[in-house]
Amino acid sequence: MSDTELERIKRQRLADMQRTLAAKKQQAEQPKQATPEQILKQVFVGRAWEVYEATKRQYPQIAGRLFQELAHLVETGRLTGQITGEQLYGLLRQIGLDVRLETKIQVLEHGELKSVADKFRGN
């Protein structure tokens, strides 16, 4: 291998490394896009996450778009304050989504939570 070939290879490797470094730097400078879940963490309280997960399971396509819009409203400041599970459920009902949630009825007896079935059985 001659000296000129060696120099050419060195220049080529140096140029490759510079391109890689520039690409990494450009990627680091771009603002990270927050996911809707990360944005909605700021406003969801109580059972809102339970309603959110149930909606995603039952209506995956609609839920994706809906929660992106909610996140956009939070980002732009048009939606402020906290969103409870009841409020989110009410919003979903208003737009025509009947989200089914698991419901349990429990009774507190002598400091112990019992299901209604256990209560009727006498346990």
Quick gist of this model?
The chain has 6 helices and 2 strands. With 123 residues, it is mainly α. The radius of gyration is 27 Å and the shape is elongated.
What does this 3D model show about the protein?
The protein is mostly helical. The protein has helices spanning 3-29, 36-40, 48-58, 60-76, 85-94, 116-121; strands at 106-109, 112-115. A hairpin with a 2-residue loop joins strand 1 and strand 2 (112-115). Strands 1-2 form a two-stranded antiparallel ribbon.
Largest sheet: 2 strands, antiparallel
Mean pLDDT figure: 90
Strand order of the largest sheet: 1-2
Name the CATH class of the largest domain.
Mainly Alpha
Helix content: 55-70%
| Structural class by sheet pairing and helices | mainly alpha
Strand content: 5-15%
Instruction: Give the termini distance in whole angstroms.
Output: 89 Å
Encode the helix/strand succession as letters: HHHHHEEH
Tally of alpha and pi helices: 6
User: How large, in whole angstroms, is the Cα Rg?
Assistant: 27 Å
- Total number of beta strands: 2
CATH architecture of the largest domain: Orthogonal Bundle
